[in-house]
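Design a sequence for this backbone.
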């Protein structure tokens, strides 16, 4: 069923760049038709899936056919779940829905080819500044002039990723920070650098609304909004544990039942991944703008030990808890 959809995927290149101007009164309308997503891991595949679900033609790019097949399998599985909810008693309608969405996703190993006709390019490769800068140098040479270039980075400054680009490219370079799992999580932080122009932010906001998500616009500072508030909370929870104030289970119960949080801090840490948390706080403590040397983000012996032993949370079967 899914294989059939994939063979019907649209051709990569279309003649005209898919960017169009729109009147500000048509706020819900998006200026972007065709989207290229660079990096087909859990975030990239999720973004591609959601954009295609909302009628965008999408090209998903990764380094190998194998990686692309993994991304496609992720989308097919996730879409299957969506289809079951949408058409609970109709297997044929479920299949049609999945095939139709997948038919709007082309797969490619060429970022330049994918970006060549895109109105929006979203980068979601691994969290490495040099790799991201190199990718954007290539994308800037290939994408249509008015295209929005966006990074899904969680922890790197958007202005640093784009620092080598031309002034014109920087005007339409922003952060589009999706949350995991993308199909379920409603929020997208729209991160504006000092160089981004208002039109680019408006276009990005319209795109985000058009794919059924809720935008929150913010400045390009470490952690944007959500992680800037979550990381101190997570680190302070770990320090409570280290000081022997309470057990992880009791701290989690306290925050769920006393503060109304859906997950406790240790459940959340394990879900996010302890290596990811360590990577972010170590970076902030070392060189985060306005955060370097801040004792909130100083290394934690407990966190370091868990990461050193490979106990990274849910994904390795053990973190603060066992799974
Ligand atoms: N995982 C999360 O919870 C989360 C949430 C928000 C944002 N992010 C950010 O999203 C980005 C991707 O994270 P992820 O969790 O999807 O990672 P991932 O490891 O699941 O996927 C990364 C993908 O990028 C591909 N890739 C590597 N080099 C590439 C290249 N040169 N060209 C094209 N593709 C390449 C890899 O093959 C892989 O498929 C990171 O910047 C991360 O900070 C992650």
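Sequence:
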């Amino acid at each position: 069923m899914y294989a059939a959809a994939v063979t019907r995927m649209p051709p990569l290149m279309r003649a005209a760049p898919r960017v169009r101007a729109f009147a500000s009164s048509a706020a819900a309308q998006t200026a972007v038709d065709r989207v290229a997503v660079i990096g087909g891991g859990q975030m990239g595949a999720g973004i591609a899936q959601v954009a295609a679900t909302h009628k965008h033609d999408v090209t998903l790019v990764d380094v190998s056919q194998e990686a692309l097949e993994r991304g496609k399998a992720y989308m097919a599985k996730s879409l299957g779940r969506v289809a079951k909810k949408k058409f609970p008693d109709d297997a044929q309608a479920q299949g049609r829905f999945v095939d139709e969405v997948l038919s709007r996703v082309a797969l490619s190993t060429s970022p330049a080819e994918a970006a060549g006709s895109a109105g929006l390019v979203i980068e979601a490769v691994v969290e490495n500044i040099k790799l991201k800068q190199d990718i954007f140098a290539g994308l800037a040479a290939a994408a249509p002039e008015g295209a929005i270039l966006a990074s899904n980075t969680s922890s790197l400054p958007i202005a640093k990723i784009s620092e080598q680009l031309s002034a014109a490219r920087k005007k339409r370079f922003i952060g589009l920070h999706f949350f995991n799992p993308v199909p379920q999580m409603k929020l997208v932080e729209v991160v504006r650098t000092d160089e981004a122009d208002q039109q680019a932010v408006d276009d990005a906001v319209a795109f985000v609304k058009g794919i059924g998500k809720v935008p929150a616009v913010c400045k390009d500072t470490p952690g944007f909004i959500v992680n800037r508030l979550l990381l101190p909370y997570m680190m302070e929870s770990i320090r409570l544990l280290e000081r022997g104030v309470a057990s992880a289970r009791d701290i989690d119960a306290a925050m769920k039942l006393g503060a109304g949080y859906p997950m406790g801090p240790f459940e959340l840490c394990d879900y996010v991944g302890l290596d990811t948390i360590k990577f972010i706080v170590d970076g902030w403590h070392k060189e985060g703008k306005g955060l370097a040397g801040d004792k909130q983000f100083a290394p934690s012996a407990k966190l370091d030990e868990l990461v050193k032993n490979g106990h990274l949370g849910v994904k390795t079967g053990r973190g603060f808890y066992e799974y």
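The pocket of nicotinamide-adenine-dinucleotide is lined by residues 38-44, 61-63, 67, 124-127, 131, 135, 152-154, 178-180 (CB under 6 Å).
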